[in-house]
Amino acid sequence: MSYPGYPPQPGAYPPQAGAYPPQPGAYPPQAGGYPPQPGAYPPQPGAYPPQPGAYPPQPGAYPSMPPAAVFTFYVICFFVTQANQISASMGGFNPSMFPQPGGYGAPSPNQQPYGMYPQPGGGMPQGPGMGYPAPGLNPSMPEYPKAPSPNPSMPAYPQGPSVNPSMPGFGGVPVVPVSQLGFRGTISDFPGADPLKDVEVLRKAMKGFGTDEQAIIDLLGSRSNKQRVPLLVTFKTAYGKDLIKDLKSELSGNFEKVVLAMMKTPAQFDASELKDAIKGAGTDEACLIEILSSRTNAEIQEINRIYKAEHKKSLEEAISGDTSGHFRRLLIALAQGNRDERETVDISLAKQDAQALYAAGENKLGTDESKFNAILCARSKPHLRAVFHEYQQMCGRDIEKSICREMSGDLESGMLAVVKCIKNTPAYFAERLHKAMKGAGTKDRTLIRIMVSRSEIDMLDIRQEYVKNYGKSLYTAITGDTSGDYRKLLLKLCGGND
């Protein structure tokens, strides 16, 4: 005779394949466990190798029971007999200790309903058959010893913001959009790219009479920046010639500008754009604002390093000599690349900063531009999103509208760019692209800079914002505003028609 939930008695059929392994406390398995059965699938070529420390693959089926297992089987039967005697002394088998057929029953009165968050401050939920023994069971039965904590000296992590807005601790701060996290570019590493074969394609495209522009578009438009830039050295090694000089001699116009921009590292390209924006009679303030307000600390610091190395003066010196007033202070502050990058948000400090911005602008005669500069250029982006939220709640006006009311000219444009990049960087670039192609003529320099610099960062998000805000796809806008090989390469960077 057998009992529900217990192993079969001696003489019964051996356990079927797939049954549960022996419980802890049984005799340990014999050394040199059973080898895998033949016929398993071999590892596929090119797959990832097994990670170190992973569990070994399980055998396909249980082999016939060896003598050692027979001994273990009889030991288990001995303990089953003892368990039956204990059960009889306790008044028989208690079926409520195990889940009944048909699923779990209703939760106990003190138990949290199934599928719900546990209440804050509460302990682990007590399910049926868990916890202390019910009244009526044998109180003299010894308890199993408590297992030691795996690492009692480890400190607890500080409590982070709840993922469930109904849970305590939610400060009402807008959540960072998913679009701002992770890779959202249109250009990525080309699998299996061979630099020697790539430069051979470029060489053939430029050799002889005429130029095969389509071959250049297809190759450069399908390689990431870190795959394109090394081609300069590979080309010189293979052919003893300068790839940039060859490209300049074979290409022209805006198509040439896009190709040359793609052959620079992001920091090299930004540094050259900043240099061109400053040199000469006029200053391209919009370019300065766009680059310095949208790049990360690390990117700005690398731009500073390259600018100093290539132009023998610091970026700060160049900005100081070409701008003035509060606009110059704003650009120099941004050019430090020293923004706080902590992800945590102190709501009380966010409220203080919102009040400080209100006191520096809307709530006083005149404007304290330095206060805006100090907060907008130094605080972290998550913190400033909370500040903008608190500002709107406090005075009923968006921070952008307050800036437009309090400032003008380049300073207004610079402050607005900082705010827009903090709120939604892809939307800011979608607006810049729209203005570059709106009306008569095209601001090709802006169009090229954004399409090249954002193609591996957030071009997919920029496309989404463009079609949402302007009623047509970025692909369609570029198609209608450009032509020829220039258009083909820009569309390659755009990546698709939404």
TrEMBL record:
Q: Name one GO biological process term.
A: cytokinetic process
Signal sequence, renumbered to the chain? none
UniProt keyword annotations, A-Z: Annexin, Calcium, Calcium/phospholipid-binding, Repeat
User: Where are the stretches annotated Disordered?
Assistant: 1-59, 121-140
Compositional bias of kind Pro residues:
1-13, 35-59
Cited PROSITE patterns: ANNEXIN_1, ANNEXIN_2
Which GO terms label this protein's molecular function in UniProt?
A: calcium ion binding; calcium-dependent phospholipid binding; phosphatidylserine binding
* A cellular-component GO term for this protein: nucleus
InterPro entries linked to this entry = Annexin, Annexin_repeat, Annexin_repeat_CS, Annexin_sf
The biased composition feature labelled Gly residues covers 121-130
Q: Does the keyword Calcium apply?
A: yes
Domain topic, free-text comment: A pair of annexin repeats may form one binding site for calcium and phospholipid.
Which family does this protein fall into? Answer: Belongs to the annexin family.
Q: What is this protein called?
A: Annexin
